Amino acid sequence: MRRSRQAQATDLELHPEKAMRNIKLENVAVTAKRVAVPADDPRRLYGASGGTVVDFANMPEAQSGMTMLQLLQGRVAGLTISGNPPNMSVQIRGQGTPLFILDGNRVDVDIISTIPSNQIESVEVFKGVEAAIFGGSGGAIAVYTKRADPNYKGNDKAPAPGVATVKVPGYYAAREFYQPRYNALLTNPPADPRTSTLYWNPTVRTNARGEAELHFFTADGSGTFQAIAEGVSLAGLPAQGSGTVVVRGK
C-alpha cells in the first residue's frame, strides 16, 4: 500500500491534470461571429478592410484539392470566374481584371491560381469604391494564407491543415560500446547474454602500414566469429574487409 501511494503521488507530480475534477456541461450555443482577419492585421495592404470576406478556414470544401478560384465561383455576388486551372479569368462587375494581393503583396493571377485552398485562411473581395484605396478600377481580391498569420503556431502537435510534419534525426555523438568488466580474481566469470557482438570500436586508427592492434575479451564458448572492418582513407575513399576469428575451448 505504501508503494502504491508513492506511485500515485509521483504520477500526480508528472501529470497534475489527473487531479482536476471533470464537470460535464450542458449544451452551449456559440453566437459570436469569428473575425477571419482582424482590421489591424499587418498583412492588410494600406490597412484596407470592409470587403466581402470568405472564410476558408471553416469551409469543409477548402480541405479538398480544389484551387482558391474554383471555390470562389458563385460565392461572391458580382464576382465572375471562368476557365479551368491554370488558365482562369476573373472579373468584378465586368470592370476588368482586379488587383490580386497575397499577404500584403501585389501578385499576378497566375500565382494566386496555384495556391491550394487548404493553405488559405480567408479571402476578401473589394468591389467598386471599396477598392479605391488600391488605385485600381477593377476591384481587388486580398488573399490571406495561414502560415503568414502573425498568430500562427503550427508545430509538431498542431501543424497547419494539409501539412505533414516529419522529424529527421540529426547528428549525435557515438555512444560507448558496452564491454563486461571482468575481474581477474574470478576464475569462472558468469556469461553475459546481452549481446552477440564481442567488440565494436568506431575510432580505430591504423599506422602508416595500415596496421592496428586491438585488445578485447572473446566469448565464453568456443566457435568461429566474423570480423568486419570498414573505414575511410585519408583521400576519402571507402574501404571494407572481413575475416574470421576462431575461439578454441579451454
Q: How would you explain this protein's 3D organization?
A:
This protein has 3 helices and 9 strands. With 250 residues, the chain is mainly β. It has a 5-stranded mixed sheet. The protein has a two-stranded antiparallel sheet with strand order 2-3. The model has no long low-confidence stretch (mean pLDDT 76). It holds the Pfam family Plug. InterPro entries: Plug_dom, Plug_dom_sf, TonB-dep_rcpt-like. Residues 61-138 form the TonB-dependent receptor plug domain.
CATH topology of the domain at 33-145: Ferric Hydroxamate Uptake Protein, Chain A, domain 1
Helix content: under 10%
Please name the fourth-level CATH homologous superfamily of the domain at 33-145.
Answer: TonB-dependent receptor, plug domain
Radius of gyration: 34 Å
Structural class: mainly beta
Q: At the first level of CATH, what is the class of the domain at 33-145? A: Mainly Beta
Poorly predicted sequence stretches spanning 5 or more consecutive residues: none
Q: What best-fitting shape do the alpha-carbon axes yield?
A: elongated
Pfam family, one: Plug
Domain TonB-dependent receptor plug: 61-138
Keywords: Receptor, Signal
Organism: Hymenobacter humi
